[in-house]
Every structure is written in structure tokens, then in C-alpha cells.
Amino acid sequence: MERSCPIKMKPMKIHDKWYDMSDFDHPGGPIMLKLGESRDATALFESHHPFTSRKYLETIMSKHEVSPDDSCYLLDAKDKDEVFDWPEFESKSDSDAHAPVSEFAYELRTKVHNYFKSEAKRRGVPLIEATKGTPFRWMQITLFTILFASTLPAFFRGEWWTLLATPLTYWILGVNTFHDGSHFALSRDWRVNLIGTYVGWWFSSPFEWYHQHVIGHHAYPNMPNRDPDLYHNGTFERHTKTQRHKPLHSHQASTWPPIWFIGTLAMNYLKPIQMLATGWYNRAVKMVQHTPARIQQHVAGRFFVFFLCHITPFLLHDSWIKAFLFSAIPVGVVSVCFMISSQVNHLTVENIDVEDRDFYKHQVITGHSFGGRDLCGWANFFFTGGLNLQIEHHLFPTVNHWHLPFLKPIVMSVCKKHDVFYHESSGLIEALSKYHKHMVALSHP
């Protein structure tokens, strides 16, 4: 597998040490390195290397460690504060070296690691390859692509049934590729993952998504001032008691449905504008230090997507009403699908305003999984792209979602043994009811 081209970048901070990774040919590609530039990247580093030999990692890192100087600075002053504890374990031998994590996390990582060792042996592939998309998963993605593509001729002809069929089949394709791609979980080849992120054109750009989701939300879920997902639509919605109550919050239990219809429209166009103007994503994540050329590419991409999704219908259809409907309804359908699949995963009474100094325990107690391995459970899985197994995903973000149903029993058993609260619902209906309960609870001052 070809690797990435080394890039020049500022040092990043991991476990209180500074590392200049400019000359490192990262197997996962240059994108992940760029996300950690001038940040405390400890949480990103640990969560994205759960199965890599610790001795190998430390050997590589030691070659890139640098003494603090003027080039070693943090973009965000909040990164000076330690929010997680990373306890050091004494290794029994060099070969037994492992990550500085708690006993809970160590047992969890070890059991999941053993699961993938068995899978790698069964399939005859390297261990890391076993954590990515399987041939069967790629067959599914191919089928989803064919289903979506089959609706396009009728969609461009303006046949009414495609107002639902095209965005729904697109959503199934997009959510089962875009999300895994952004977590480097589709393939070991970073280029494949990069292409996967651009399948999400109807609900988000990779440029914005990496800030919102990978840097902010995944490292610090439900953490005030760090997780940008707590501050979407702040004028209309309140998702944490630490947020000041505003008059319109009193009505959020009934105003969230129309907001769901326009949510991804804001993510696609308004949020990037806000981020470029302020240098922050939702005042929680400082923008990556991209070159002017990269920012220009992003802006050009947003104009192209807007033209493709919202201007093209006016060029294809004689009726302005029909053109408007084909411009607005598909993105609204995609937005509702996105909100159904994402909002219930952390925004519940049980998961809000809780925290733990143990990074892995924090991922569990702020997450919400739903659906089993019965017919309804698999329907939940494919519709949400595996987001219904949110706890498992947050613990192991680089694992392809296809594996998560098989990891769930392991995670649940380790949580039970260590008395870590595992929030589970039977299905999507129950999960949605808990989201509504959360919206009611936070509507009061």
C-alpha cells in the first residue's frame, strides 16, 4: 500500500511531550496529522491507535520528539487544561508494553484486540486490515451505490417519486461510507477513506466535519466548551445545564422538528462560513491551520455543491414550483435522516452533564446505543450506518461499523464487570422518546 507524502507542520502535544511529525510518512495519511497540529492531540492519538504495538508507536514517537520552543504552541488555550487522566502502567517486559490507560480500558482494548486477532487469522489478513471494511461490507456499499444511481435518471427528469427515493437511497449510501471514511475506518488506504468523505456532499463537507466531529465531538463528547455538538442552534436549543437559558429554549420540545429539516443545510453552508469568519467551529474548536489554497478549494467546493443541489433543478424544470421542491425537499429528507441517526446518540437525560476523568469511561457514560441483532436491530444499523451502536463506535472509532454489532457483547460485559453505566435502548422509537424527554428537561431554566 502506498503511503502519504510527508507534510510540513507545527508540532503537536501528546502526553505532555511535543512531537514534530513533519517528516513522518503516516500510514493513515496526512489528514489525521494535520488535525493534531498545534493541539493537545493525546485523546486523538490514543483513540486512533488502540491495536498498534505500543513499543512500535513509542519507537516512532521518540524519533520525532522535540524540545519546546516558539514553534510549540497550542491553538486553543483550553488545551492547557488536563481533562482526562492517563495512568501509567508498569510493563512486565518490553514486549508487554501498552497504553497508559486504566484497568477498565486495558481489559476492554485487550478483549477487542483479541477478537480482531481471531478475525485476522480467520480471514488471512493483517490485524489492522481486519478492523476495516470487509469484502461483504464493500458488497453492501456497492449495492447501495447501485440503488442510489438507479434513481438519478428519473430524479433529473423530475419524477415525483424520486423526491423521497433519491435522498433516502443517497442517505443509506452516504451514512454507510462518509462516516467511516472520516474515521479512517473504510480502508487501510487513506485515499479510499478520503474519497469516502466526499460521498457526504448532501449533508456536510469533510472540511467542516473533521472540526465538528473528529477533533471536537469524538475527543470530548458532551463536554461543555469542547464538544461543538452541544452548541448547534444555540438560539433555539439548549443541550446542557451549563448553557445560559434563553427565552426560545422554553419551546424547544416542540420546535426541534422543523429545525431537523434544515439542519444539514446549515452544516453544509452556514457553518463553514461562520468558521472561516471567526476561526472557530461553534466557539469550541479552533480551526485547523490550512493554507490559503486549501481554503480556496473548500470554498469552491461549497459553491459547486450548492450549484449541483440547489441551482440545477431550476435549469432542468420549467416550473419554478417544481424546481423549488426538487431543490429543497431532498436536502430536507437527508437532514431529517441525519438528525434521526445522530441526535439520539448523546442527547438524553442520562448522558448529558456527566463526565469521567477516565477517557474510555467518559466515552461510555456519554453515549447511547440502541437496537439488537434481530431484524429491527439490523434495520436500525443500516439506516443509521451503525451510529445506533454509538458507545462501541466512540470507544473504537477507527473500526468499521460493520464490526460493531459483534463488539457490543464484549463492551457490555466489561462495563458490567467494572460497574460502568452502559446506556442502551431497545430500538429507535425508545431512543427518540428519550431525546424528546431531554429536550423537555432542558427547556426549563
Written overview of the protein:
With 445 residues, this protein is mainly alpha-helical. The protein is built from 18 helices and seven strands. The strands form three sheets. Strands 1-2-3 form a three-stranded antiparallel β-sheet. A hairpin with a 3-residue loop joins β4 (280-281) and β5 (285-286). α6 runs antiparallel to α7 (162-175), α7 packs parallel to α13 and α11 crosses α13 (320-342). It is globular, with a radius of gyration of 22 Å. The termini are far apart. The relative contact order is 0.11. The model has no long low-confidence stretch (mean pLDDT 93).
Which term fits the overall shape?
Answer: globular
Quote the average pLDDT: 93
Please indicate the percent range of residues in DSSP E strands (runs of 2 or more).
under 5%
Q: Helical percent range? A: 40-55%
Low-confidence residue ranges: none
Q: Give the spatial strand order of the biggest sheet.
A: 1-2-3
What characterizes the major β-sheet?
Answer: 3 strands, antiparallel
What is the number of strand segments?
7
Question: What class, by secondary structure content?
Answer: mainly alpha
Order of helices and strands: EEHHHEHHHHHHHHEEHHHEHHHEH
Question: Which tags fit this structure?
Answer:
445 residues, mainly alpha, 3-stranded antiparallel sheet, 18 helices, 7 strands, globular
